[in-house]
Amino acid sequence: YRWFLIRCLDTASAASVEPSCKWDSDWDKRANDKAKATRNIILIRHGQYNLAGSGDKERYLTELGKEQAIRTGIRLKELGLAKLTTHFVKSTMTRAQQTGDLIYKQLENDEIPVEDSDLIREGAPVEPEPPIQSWNPDPKTFFLDGARIETAFRHFIHRANPEQEFDSTEVIVCHGNVIRYFVCRALQLPPEAWLRLSLRHGSITWLSVRPNGRVSIKCLGDSGHLPADKLTF
Amino acid sequence: YRWFLIRCLDTASAASVEPSCKWDSDWDKRANDKAKATRNIILIRHGQYNLAGSGDKERYLTELGKEQAIRTGIRLKELGLAKLTTHFVKSTMTRAQQTGDLIYKQLENDEIPVEDSDLIREGAPVEPEPPIQSWNPDPKTFFLDGARIETAFRHFIHRANPEQEFDSTEVIVCHGNVIRYFVCRALQLPPEAWLRLSLRHGSITWLSVRPNGRVSIKCLGDSGHLPADKLTF
């Protein structure tokens, strides 16, 4: 890996170097599918929850976490997304289920199909670079969670199916590590960089996947819809 | 560059590969300086402006652009940053000057020192990967702007000086391309990826640089403080 290390350090004179990583336009293996529409993928982190809880069921939303979720739902409605949302996915963990239900209610559109998914439960997607001392799951955890979260990425994040005629909005309510990994993978950035990103509770992260497979991020961790005294990490 | 191309495609099975790019903890050449404080760097994109203008002076803020700037200033005040801001920098382009002045006024703290900078004027930091057809500056533009914007990065984005005792907040009002390039460089992501990020007018992007040189992003293009009908790209 010696050459690559040199290339990394070279970013210091980025203005004059070769692109380090070519964009793979067939990253989702759908380049020949003739997609017509754009998929907007709205990734929501759950609200603040009871950190003292042991086990998932006790890790329910705090009162502040519920308020964050409600306000996030109101923001999505204000953005006009209630009519455009074609799919609504929730992680099966308690805090994501509660957050998702509160958001869904605010959208006031019972026709949006809902899916619960175990694939997007919180986990350890890949060893972060640089590592941190305070968070150090064992190799087995990365081994199991990594493949599962990558499976989730391939399942949920891709360009439109060819039969999709109109632009769509998918809302996915899940977890910080999952969202950060999805963002790195979707933008074709090194996945190990995921821990350099941080996301507030109830924040909105918006990916846009064009018919030609190009991906851009419209915002990461947008929490401006929450009053300053309701912000938590 | 063959090996690297293979590595890029390998992200498809990210869970089991070596880190692609080691974090350079001496990226700002200040690793031995014994910094004590954290620098919060708030990057603000200017408001909507008169696209029909020829030349910088005619590219002034629209009425909506002014409102965006005022609301962004109010948000920074709400976040408690008016008291914490130690430095306020504006690009010398008309739209950034106007935006910066409107924000500064909202902070209601005349003791914050102000700096105007030519280094952070809009430009073409580095050829984007993937390229786009609709934006294609000539090589000379990249050659000139690239080194200048990299100079700006090294000047403004770094860990605290050793004499800095308390955490600080720097507000930098500038431009989309400059902010996107700064984010890629600060997070040690490939700089050519900058065009995969997008930022709304008046949006807030927050970098945090710790004493040990670690950098994280708290939000990218946060515009939730703007009503939905005031959002523009």
UniProtKB/TrEMBL annotation, chains A, B:
It comes from Ciona intestinalis. InterPro entries: His_Pase_superF_clade-1, His_PPase_superfam, Mito_Ser/Thr_phosphatase. SUPFAM superfamilies: Phosphoglycerate mutase-like. One of its GO terms (cellular component) is mitochondrion. This is Serine/threonine-protein phosphatase PGAM5, mitochondrial. Coiled coil: none annotated. Substrate binds at R45, H46, G47, Q48, Y49, N50, R95. Belongs to the phosphoglycerate mutase family. BPG-dependent PGAM subfamily. It comes from the Eukaryota. It holds the Pfam family His_Phos_1. Its EC number is 3.1.3.16. Keywords: Hydrolase, Necrosis. GO terms for biological process: positive regulation of mitochondrial fission; programmed cell death. It is an enzyme of class 3 (hydrolase). GO terms for molecular function: protein serine/threonine phosphatase activity.
